[in-house]
Amino acid sequence: MAGQFxxxxxxxxxxxxxxxxxxxxxxxxxxSPRVQEITxxxxxxxxxxxxFTSTVKDAGMKTGRTFRIxxxxxxxxxxxxxxxxxxxxxxxGGYDLESTGPGTTKVRIFNVLExxxxxxxxxxxxxxxARKDAPAFGQRIKTAVEAS
Length: 148
Fold this sequence. Notes:
Shape: globular
Number of helices: 2
Order of helices and strands: EHEEEEEEH
Radius of gyration: 15 Å
Strand order of the largest sheet: 1-7-6-5-4-3-2
Structural class: alpha+beta
Distance between the termini: 37 Å
Helix content: 25-40%
């Protein structure tokens, strides 16, 4: 069973600034307490094919995650796919950004979670937790971008 969660936030920054913050990819620990560390390959600007490798902590367990950028349309759209082999992965995810006025941006983040092996039994729990946290996740993104 695969399923999606999403969060939205209205951020008091121009769309170009919000996009740059999110596109950097290495800012994730500033708004996602799951992300312990993250690196980007290759160095330089993010583009289709850029790979982010992270260590995350879920339910007390650390796992390695690898994501590849699959779409990159500045300053409106970023898509990724998880390429790591974990019991629950983000098959697809992304950001959609929209300017909502002078200096304000609406951002939507989503992830489609899929279970593999025993993860097929766990994905429902992961989705439930992600959906429950979604409003707070959106607020954490807003707070991190506005503080940058």
